[in-house]
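Re-run with default settings, no changes from the original entry. Doing this only to confirm the output is reproducible before filing.
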Amino acid sequence: MKEPANSLARINVGYICLKKRIFGEAIEHLSKAIRLDNDKKATLYAHFYLGLVYLQREMFEDAETFFQKTLKLGPNLIEAYYELGRAHWFAGDHEKAKSTWDEGFKANKFNPGASAAGDAGARGQGRGAAARLVLTLVALLLQSPTATEVGRVTAVAWPGQEALAAAIAEQADGAKNFPGIGALPDRPIRIILAPNRQTYDSLTRGRLPLWSEGAAFPDVSTIVLLADQPAFRPTAALRHELAHLALRWQVGRRVPLWFEEGYARSRHRSGIASTRYGSTGSSRAACA
């Protein structure tokens, strides 16, 4: 390396080696960054990336050690809770995995934008957002909702909403004819019916306005709908959020908010009966 004492450069090289599965070189660069210990952010992520290296190598005890050290250095790094839980799970300790995910969910709940030293570039932001949503989902799934599968769609609902979940999953699985896109790409989709505002806010991390009753998270193939009324009919709102997924998946990157929301609203109004959502009932949360 041109700058052997540059810890940030070393963790970036280590990360590239990790993604290329050149584990020996990844360990060398990341371990050197830890020994240099001349940049707090570099030291934090060196531990985290080493945890990922050992997790991929199925050396779960070593992975657990590095993720635990990561959390000591940066207790708000939500991704580390998620990966530590995975290490526990694959090591066979499912209870410890659930406990770790629950702990991460609570940390995220009280500091939803947290990422201890700041996310390492765009990849950190994407990984962090996905990890935060997954931790929220895991915590809520421990509360005993049920999952209904129809084709590639899994609808998650709480007791009393099973029939609604099945109907929504069927509608989503058969969705087609998005202008300029056609049918949705063939990917799994998760739809969560939040039975109350508190659950909805937990799933969307409290980032949406009070009138919001639907949100799409294309990066993790997830839609959240607020289903807190007996007469809830999700057809228009579901179509709106599916349009967010269809557009993002087709384009392959984020587009300006005004364009994405305008596209989704056009599908909301295209020959679909009005529901209690109205034209502004759904709020884009596609930044996950």
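Residues 155 and 165 are 5 Å apart (CA to CA). The chain has two domains: 7-141, 146-269.
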